[in-house]
Specification:
17 helices, alpha+beta, 5-stranded mixed β-sheet, 580 residues, 23 strands, single chain, 28% helix, Dipeptide-binding Protein, domain 1
Length: 580
């Protein structure tokens, strides 16, 4: 098999994985920014790592749903109310802690952490926390992924200078975690100033609050996230501008004001992170052989090592699962007349050779998916996947009226996806022969990720090839499969699937606190989804990567490989940045 490299990380498959590409060491002092470090900390400080990703359009925490923006920038720069411990998986305080909770699990009193500050040195206040909720109440804001967390809130009350109360709309089996680990806090003053500047530039009245005329449109034009609370912040050059060179790179550096650095002195030791944009596959292969990669996530790690065993001199192979790894899938557009018919969707599912995807494309580091949930959990479906059978699929399509000589004529299917994912291209190529045997024309329309998401929003797809990762607090299929007829924030049912039984099961399961009863409800959901095939589940991948040996204490955690505890011996450093 010809060696192919993924240009971007798998969406959510690596919701904790950092596929960082280390480039040639810049000479000391060559960077046009300073990387602040604290040499008094117990672990050696310094060094940096960088990765090849698609470039996010912006870093606005309110409006982005971009995987890179969320998982590889905002995750490290802007903390939420609470977090998932990367070692134990437990829910732990972050910017705030719960001081009191009501017995029904709907009301929570929070207290801000003592002394927590933004990266500009100003204190985080309850008004900053409240601002996130107020913004998401403005329906003119084109809210991104943050809406799924904040949208669960019915009321926000300020109790005093450090305490506030949040009341949820309804019971949720993981209600506190589902809300608190996604409730990202920004600096209110910074966003108010940016909106005022944009209003002045456009000659419109300055909106005085969320919900005022023009507020949502102006907020959507903000590209940066403002001062940070996390262990890193955006690097700034000598002019004070963020080191984000369009089409090339973005840098993060340590945030000296971070409460995490104070609370956990042995964590977050790397001086900087560099996100590189626009690297193609040949450049990545050359970088690997020249030891300019910290991580590689090849399509077939076993074959790569068999062909190049010398790589193990500088790299070690790491294979693991994590709580957030999900599945590759094809989402069917239920607005298309043919794809409204479950017979057609079942037939199309039979045309994907999922074992070949797992074995040939992913080198055996994947298993065939037959359920939305994590394999091995009690919620996992009991039904075997629909068998790969092009002949039977042709007959089923004919029974539905599709094919040569049939009333509806031959079926033509276009799969939209991210062209930066080499695996997506191969998945389309692997399927085309079987589709042809069944009398179906299959073509791929792989495009830049932002354009692919825009096409999905407009409904301009037959099938959308994607990866879905799970949330670390627990798998909840509600957002993806509930029809969301009220337009409540947070829904991801872009396929417009609607089934009354599924809606009812998901609503009841989300509110059921008894684990046994919830599992029973979700098994019924599995049966309905298996019958309807609103999506075609392909495979559950496992991470199989090469990791450069220079990183110390780099072991998989609850959500994958995250550089929280990593450090590099001084004589192993590849970057020598200017330090304060």
């Amino acid at each position: 098999m010809r060696l192919r490299w993924a240009v971007a990380l798998i969406c959510v498959a690596v919701a904790g994985l950092l596929c960082w590409v280390l480039v040639r060491t810049p000479p000391t002092g060559s960077a046009d920014f300073v990387a602040p470090i604290d040499p008094t900390r117990p672990r050696p400080q310094g060094d940096a790592y960088c990765g090849a990703f698609h470039e996010p359009a912006h870093l606005n925490p309110f409006t982005t749903s971009d995987h890179v923006a969320l998982s590889y920038v905002l995750r490290f720069t802007h903390d939420c109310l609470m977090a998932i411990d990367l070692t134990s998986g437990a829910l732990v305080p972050a910017l705030a802690e719960v001081s009191e909770a009501s017995p029904d699990g709907l009301r929570f009193d929070f207290a801000l952490r003592d002394g927590v500050r933004f990266s500009d040195g100003t204190p985080v206040t309850v008004e900053d926390v409240r601002f996130t909720h107020e913004v998401l109440q403005d329906r003119t804001v084109p809210a991104g992924s943050i809406a799924s967390a904040v949208g669960q809130i019915a009321a926000f009350e300020t109790l005093d200078a450090r305490r506030f109360r949040i009341t949820l709309r309804a019971r949720h089996f993981a209600g506190l975690a589902a809300m608190a680990i996604g409730y990202r806090v920004v600096q209110r003053r910074w966003f108010v100033q940016r909106i005022a500047e944009l209003a002045a530039a456009r000659g419109v009245a300055v909106p005085d609050r969320p919900g005022a005329p023009e507020f949502g449109r102006l907020l959507a034009a903000v590209r940066l996230p403002g001062p940070s609370t996390g262990p890193y912040r955006l690097a700034v050059d000598r002019r004070g501008a963020p080191v984000w060179r369009a089409g090339t790179e973005l840098w993060l550096v340590q945030n000296p004001s971070s409460w995490q650095r104070r609370a956990f002195p042995e964590r977050w030791n790397l001086a900087a992170m560099r996100l590189r944009f626009g690297l193609d596959e040949p450049a990545q292969f050359v970088a690997l052989r020249a030891q300019q990669l910290d991580w590689v996530l090849p399509p077939d790690l076993g074959r790569l090592l068999a062909d190049h065993p010398d790589l193990l001199e500088h790299y070690r192979a790491v294979r693991y699962d994590s709580a957030v790894l999900g599945q590759y899938l094809v989402v069917w557009n239920h607005q298309r007349p043919a794809l409204r018919d479950p017979r057609v969707r079942r037939a199309l599912t039979r045309l994907f050779d999922r074992r070949a995807i797992a074995e040939e494309l992913l080198g055996g580091d994947a298993v065939v998916a037959s359920s939305w949930f994590k394999q091995g959990t009690p919620e996992y479906g009991l039904d075997p996947p629909w068998a790969f059978d092009p002949k039977l699929a042709r007959a089923e399509l004919a029974a539905a009226g599709y094919g040569s000589g049939q009333p509806n004529g031959p079926l033509r299917i276009t799969l939209v996806g991210d062209r930066g994912q080499a695996r997506y291209r191969r998945m389309v190529e692997l399927a085309q022969g079987a589709f042809r045997d069944a009398g179906v024309e299959l073509r791929g329309n792989l495009m830049e990720w932002g354009a692919a998401l825009a096409a999905r929003e407009r409904g301009e797809f037959d099938g959308f090839l994607m990866y879905w990762s799970h949330s670390p607090e627990g798998v909840d299929p509600f957002e993806f499969f509930h029809s969301n007829p009220t337009g409540a924030p947070g829904g991801h049912n872009r396929m417009r699937y609607h089934d009354a039984e599924v809606d009812a099961l998901l609503v009841t399961a989300r509110r059921e606190l008894d684990a046994t009863k919830r599992i029973e409800l979700l098994q019924r959901f599995n049966l309905a989804v298996h019958r309807d095939q609103p999506v075609t589940l392909l495979v559950h991948p496992r991470n199989a990567l090469l990791l450069h040996r220079r990183f110390e204490d780099a072991v998989p955690g609850f959500t994958g490989m995250v550089p929280e505890r990593w450090w590099v011996k001084p004589d192993q450093r590849r970057y020598h940045l200017r330090h304060e």
